[in-house]
Amino acid sequence: MNHLYKTTNKKLRKVMFSVFNGKCFYSGQPVQEDGFEIDHVVPRI
């Protein structure tokens, strides 16, 4: 199964921001909701 997730999708960005509590996954530093990068999304099945 091949899924393509657009990292510019506003709903996806809002969920990712919420899941990581507004912090960078790698550094743990706070990020701005409208200014962070999503490198890739790997869904759990």
TrEMBL record:
CDD domains: HNHc (cd00085). Gene3D superfamilies: 1.10.30.50. This is HNH endonuclease. It comes from viral metagenome.
